[in-house]
Amino acid sequence: MNISNNNIKQILRDLLVFYDLDVDLEGLVHNTVSVEEKHGQALAAEILKRLGFQTRYASLQDTDIQKTEYPMIVETQNGENALCMPRKTHGNANEINLSETANNVLLVIAAPSQTGVDTRHMQTGHALDWFWKPLVQYRSRYKEILVASVFINLLVLAIPIFTLNVYDRVVINFAHETLYVLTVGVLIALLFDFLFKTLRSYILERIAEDVGAQFDFELMERFSRMRPSDLNISIGEQANIFRELQGIREFYANRLMPTLIDLPFALVFLCVIYLLSPPLVMVPICIAVIIVAMNFTSHIPISRMTEQYFGAIQNKSSLLIETLAGLETARLFNAISARLFKWNTNVKHAARVTRQNSFMLSLMSNMSMFLSQTGHILVVFFGVYQIDAGNLTVGGLVACTILSGRAIGPIVGLSGVIAHLKQSNDVLKVIDKFFQATHEDTRDVTKSAKGPFHGTLRLQKLSFKYEEQSTRALENINLDIQPGESIGLIGKTAAGKSTLAKVLANIISPQEGTLTLDGYDYSAIPTTELRRTIAYVPQDSFFFRGSIRHNILLGREHIDEQQIQEAISISGLDIVIQHSAQGLDTEVGELGTRLSGGQKQAIALARAIIQRPRILIFDEPTTGMDHALEFHVKQKLEAYIKDKTFIMVTHRTTLLPLVQRLVLLDRGHILADGPRDEILKKLSV
């Protein structure tokens, strides 16, 4: 076999060449967030899975390795990785004895299931596939749960058998030795019952823990990779969906699974009752039929209340986040009372809907319990007549009473499960909309890298309208931007400058027209490659809790110290932190509350510059800066942008020397486009 470079990225490149696949490998590596350390076989397995390969870890003998028909990534004894190509395609060149150089753990790579990249696992598929498939992965654990449940339900028979024998044999004959034996036996049975129940609960909780973490990760990944226009719900509503998903996880683990597993054993208990007294078995059967019929008739009102409940809780959660985030503004303008009134109204409505929903669920549960207790009374009532007729003993009646409760128990549990299942399904349908929607991974995985780019941007007949607005923010925009050109977007407030900047930065997508980079339509370029090429600084940047360094790097661990120093020098951040004892380790606080406006903007500029992009798009880059800091940033940018495409939105005339060309916008239209001095001269006239 042949062995290639041990660098994992190079190994992946060689492998993709072998399968004739052209994809944006850098983007795939960047998006592989589920692997803690982005190197080695774990990284390769995750990326290959995204590309439709089938991978598995294996321990193979040397002879088996030499016979394999697939390439393999081998971890050598020194911890490095190597790509082994099959002899069938690569002959015997550079053949080595893998048993002397390789660890036992190998990543065996099977060919994609079809020509080209197989993305079937990323497409929408059937509704709720995202929910059921992770649960199905634990089939082997379900077998363990089933075995435990069999013993749990069989051990239930211990108490009725014990009671039957005590009443019918021990009491009559005063057989104390038999009583001791029966008591020890039933206590041992109860001990095993406790152990099996504990084991089942532990397994269910472990499954719920793993699946719940996977659900939370996948939902957050969906939210993270969807465009804001596709997401279209508030942060509070997003947070509430996570809470509801947690409730669903617990419901499926602690209620649904045990109930469904225990349900078939109700037939076992009914059979035992039939053996003791055939007429009495009709009582629990009739009660069970009534409970099931009652649940089906209550389906419509419960469905209506569940929809109202979920909507009310979503609105409450949205208002909660909005109010807490805006408390400072509310205090400044004496709006606390107005916000509290709105909050109180919303809370009362949510509480009323919750009460109605809970009352209906409680009513169904209480009715089921009432019927269960009625069944208990009826078994005793009719059992007396069976005893009088000589068809049943007292011990048999007590046993039938106990078994009747156990037979009806899963049906009563099913009543509560059905009621909560409707509520869970409504939540799952809402979540499923996000899983069915396309996101960046589904669009990008088959796209090949198009760079390096020169920086030519072309907009033709481009129009954009925000969903909630009646007029277009941009209309029929035609614009050509050459590599290395510096352009200023100017105009009145709401002229469309920031919207155009967002379109150019691929934050939002136009509804009409074309937008190309070096002749490639934006839609043909992987999103991660666009973001490596284009750096965008919005008017209001977001800051995460942590240090300044953390907010600059944002997880980009490959950036070296030289890049960091270059970025903080150009952005003026070095001036901002020069009097801070912690320097780049200074904490910014939640949402950057410990920073001034100028400090925030300097950090925002630094984290855009640090990636060394080809195109820079700045929206009011010096907002909040004093004159000295603004002058410093202006001087640094003049030298930095000379070999880059630079686009700036600004109202500040002091920054206009940074650009050679001005584009004047008004109400979404381009009114003027030309050299800076000519446009300024026309405006002054």
Q: Could you explain the architecture of this structure?
A:
With 685 residues, the chain is of the alpha/beta class. The protein has 3 domains: 2-119, Cysteine proteinases (Cathepsin B, Chain A), CATH 3.90.70.10; 129-439, ABC transporter transmembrane region fold (Up-down Bundle), CATH 1.20.1560.10; 457-684, P-loop containing nucleotide triphosphate hydrolases (Rossmann fold). The strands form 3 sheets. The chain has a 6-stranded mixed β-sheet, sandwiched between helices. Helix 12 (235-262) packs antiparallel against helix 15 and helix 15 runs antiparallel to helix 17. It is elongated, with a radius of gyration of 34 Å. Mean pLDDT is 80; it is low at 1-6, 91-96 and 113-125.
Helix segment tally: 27
Class inferred from helices and paired strands = alpha/beta
CATH topology of the largest domain: ABC transporter transmembrane region fold
Sequence of strands across the biggest β-sheet: 11-12-13-8-14-15
The shape is elongated
Helix proportion: 55-70%
Strand segment count: 15
CATH class wording of the largest domain: Mainly Alpha
Q: What's the overall average pLDDT, rounded?
A: 80
Task: List unreliable stretches of 5+ residues.
Answer: 1-6, 91-96, 113-125
Instruction: Output the radius of gyration.
Output: 34 Å
Largest sheet: 6 strands, mixed
Number of domains: 3
